[in-house]
Automatic annotation (TrEMBL):
Keyword line: Isomerase, Rotamase, Signal
Organism of this sequence: Shewanella canadensis
Protein name in the entry: Peptidyl-prolyl cis-trans isomerase
Annotated PPIase FKBP-type domain residues: 151-236
Gene Ontology terms describing biological process: protein folding
Enzyme class, first EC level, given as a word: isomerase
InterPro entries for this protein: PPIase_dom_sf (IPR046357), PPIase_FKBP_dom (IPR001179), PPIase_FKBP_N (IPR000774), PPIase_FKBP_N_sf (IPR036944)
Signal sequence segment: 1-24
Family listed: Belongs to the FKBP-type PPIase family.
Gene3D superfamilies for this protein: 3.10.50.40, Peptidyl-prolyl cis-trans isomerase, FKBP-type, N-terminal domain (1.10.287.460)
Length: 262
């Protein structure tokens, strides 16, 4: 499409040779104008993302009127007073908050039901063991080293995904194992890692209440059950040179941050 549009412009300019219309596009992107153009493009991208987010929540948006309001404001010719603008924006914000709460509530319920079905089906597998808390784990390979205690520091490799198979974090792709205090992670990890020996690799199926519960964390939506494949690389006793190391490597939707329900 982009090439097609450029061809039309080129053809229409031929009879006019170096007309003003033909020079308009290159002049717009001349070095002296690129910064100004970038400011406008930045505003446009931001406004576009806001309008998309609002439309996803069912809000009506008239793009032409949005553009009209933007241009009027730039010219200092707004048709509404500042007080009216704030008032209408507050009304819109309340509507959007209500719509988002309803959407989140529906999604949380959907995730909870899907997670329960997934865990119930998975529990029937002969390779899966279920703890009293509801954590499910599967031994991929056993280790022979130390078993971490609640306050120990561990180094792990892992990948995490949603129950539909969508991967949200993977230390292997970063080629960087993560080192952290066990008390800093979600409950499913705290319990699961203490079942492992150094060198072991397990698969965890974690109920939402042992993960992030009703919180949204990155791409992990409320009440999501999570699946992790975890390799316990090293166990260390807590100490001055160990506590809290390696946290910068954690992915946004990883497993940091203990559940607030604990």
């Amino acid at each position: 499409m982009k090439t097609f549009k450029k061809s039309i412009i080129a053809i229409s300019c031929l009879p006019l040779f170096l007309s003003v219309q033909c020079m308009a596009e290159p002049e717009l992107l001349a070095d002296s104008n690129k910064e100004s153009y970038s400011i406008g493009a930045s505003f446009g991208n931001y406004i576009s993302s806001q309008l998309y987010s609002q439309s996803q929540l069912g809000a009506e948006v008239d793009v032409d009127i949005v553009v009209e309001g933007l241009l009027d404001a730039l010219k200092g010719q707004s048709k509404l007073s500042n007080e009216d603008i704030v008032s209408y924006l507050n009304i819109r914000a309340e509507q959007l908050n209500t719509a988002k709460e309803e959407k989140d509530k529906d999604l949380a319920l959907k995730n909870l039901v899907a997670g329960e079905k997934f865990l119930a089906k998975n529990k029937k597998s002969a390779d899966v063991r279920t703890t009293e808390s509801g954590l499910q784990y599967e031994v991929i390979s056993q280790g022979s080293g130390a078993i971490p205690q609640a306050n120990d520091v561990v180094t792990v490799h892992y990948k995490g995904y949603l129950i539909d198979g969508t991967e949200f974090d993977n230390s292997y792709t970063r080629d960087e194992a993560n080192r952290f205090s066990l008390v800093t992670v979600i409950e499913g990890w705290q319990e699961g890692l203490q079942l492992m020996k150094e060198g072991a690799k397990y698969k965890f199926n974690i109920p939402s209440e042992l993960a992030y519960g009703e919180r949204q964390v990155g791409m992990i939506s409320p009440n999501s059950a999570l699946v992790f494949e975890v390799e316990l690389v090293k166990v260390e006793a807590p100490g001055e040179n160990a506590h809290g190391m390696g946290l910068s490597g954690m992915g946004m939707g990883g497993m940091m941050g203990a559940n607030p329900h604990k």
